[in-house]
Structures are given as structure tokens and as C-alpha cells.
Amino acid sequence: MTLRAVTLLYAPRLRNAKKGAIMKIISNIPTPAEVKKKYPLTSAARQIKTSRDADLTDIITSASQKFLLIIGPCSADNPDALNTYTARLSAIQKTTSDKILILPRVYTQKPRTFAQGYMGIFHHPNPTAPPNLVEGIFALRHIHHLILENHGLTTADELLYPDLYPYIDDLVSYFAIGARSVENQLHRFVASGIDAPVGMKNPISGSMAAMFNSITAATRAHRFMYRGQEVQTSGNPMTHAILRGYRDHGENHPNYHIENLLDASRRYEQSNLPHPCIIVDVSHSNSDKNYLSQPAAAMEIIASRKACEALGAIKGLMLESYLRDGQQAPGGSIFGKSLTDPCLGWGKTEEFINKLHEAL
Prior knowledge:
globular; alpha/beta
């Protein structure tokens, strides 16, 4: 068959294929300056942010022996519920501040395996309505702003969309790069220019090498395209590891046991990275998706850290916690109950934080 015959044979299919996907502009997203103008920071809040950032930097760089606790719901969905939850966190921070720095986990962008369902307050400012990203970007800043201004706590967020960093850079003290994003080049590049600690999670496959490749990349300077401009970064020396377990053949496997922690510590020793730091996320595969298993996993990590001098790089923990135990579907009416992964309720959360404080 000649080339012309082949072209004629497949031409109708090729023409139809071009109609299979389209991308159209719905609206322009407000600029960071416009969103910040609606939710500006008071001078008192700026001072709190500066102080808490300094405390966090001291933990990451080993200048402080305090322990980092990033704790909160799987996804931030309801400003009123987050307000109530963080008021309680603020109260317990006052009684544990000699040993623990608490950062509320306020994840406004929720990655989904199949990119379907509830995707965080940025996509769904109203959990029962279709996506509205213009409203969502104001809701995203509002929820971080509310927590800092009302309760004096700076927050942690997952940077699913690197373009969102300038909207919350003055509110958020800690950024995580998730298991589905950690091998993405743009995430690594943007992390290299963030003036805050950035935690790189191991990918869902569990590859420690991929995680350390990402950490190394983010500590280096890069030149790239970002938000329509060519930018140069300096490299972020506070980029570090987050262990979150992994999945293999559909099964969850933890990576918080002492042999896993020693493996991560050895990789740091061989890497020459500036600030060895390991945060362990005891939810996800590290709890086999059982939220009630999180406190036991956390206390095992603390025991390993105390028993083995080589585990000094373990600087903190992540837990999923909210006002009520468990989870509910988006649109559910139970105040303070997770719309995504199940979370530890407040009673168990308070008990855990006090136990952690005593054990440190």
C-alpha cells in the first residue's frame, strides 16, 4: 500500500481524533495582589509568622530540639469547622510549646487518584456544587488567613498546584509535595525557590531514591518558566524527606519501622544534603488507611528515635485529625467530620498530643 493510500485510509479517524479534546477559557483567575488585598495581614499577624517561621527553621536545621507536629484534617473543607478545630490546637500548643511546635494541617488542594470527587476547597468552595476556581482561590487564602489572625497559628499546606504559592506565601509556614507530584519537574523547580521548609513525600511506589532525587533537585538553583515569566531560584536548603508508606500490588506497606528510618538516615549520610530531616506521615499507607492506628505508629517512631542515636534526623510527625472520628461523603451534615480520608476525632487527638509531649 502506498503512503498516499495509508494517509487516505486513516485521514477520517485523524480528523475525528482532533475533535476529541478541547480546552477553553472560562474566566481569568485573580492575581495574588488582588486576593491578598481582600485578606490582608495585620502587623501582629506578620510578627507571629516571622517568629513561628524562625522556630520551624531551627527545628529543620537542628538548631532547636523541639519536635514538629503537623496535624489536621485530610482536607480543609469548612472554615467554621477549621476555626473551631484550630482554636483547640492553639490552646494545647500553649501547654506543649516547650517541646512541640504545632502546625495545623490545612490542605486546600486535594489530589485524587482518578482526578474525580471532592478536590479540596480550591476546587470546591462549596462541597456540593461544581468547581469554581475564582471563588476557590479566595476561599483558599481566607482559610489560612482565618487561622493565623484568629488563633496565632501558621499553617502547612500541600502544594498540588505550584502556581498557588504566591497567594499564600505570607501565611503558610510549611509546604508538602505529595506522593503523586514528587517526581514532577515543575514541583521540584518551584520548591527550589520557596522561602520555607518543603517536605518531599516518597512516591506511592515507595521509591526512596526518587524522593531523595527530588530533595537534591530542590536544594539546587534552577532557571525555568513560572507564571508566564523566566525565573531564577537560589535552591532551598530546607527541602527534606517525608515518609508516608507505599502501595504494592494493591496493598499498603508502612515505612516507619526502625529499619526504614535507618535506611532514610543512611541515605542522608551518603547525600551531603545540608539539613538531614525526616518527617513521618503516620496516615495513608503508614496506617494501612486505618486512622485509629496513627497514634500507635507515632509512638513507635518516638521510641525508635529515643533508642537509636542514628535517628536524630527524625524531626516531626504528620497526622490526620479533625473534630469527629471517621469520614462522611461531601455534602454530609456532621460538623467537623472529614469529607475525604477518615480522621482521628478531637478527644483522641488531645490524648495523643499530651502523650507525645510526655514521651519527648
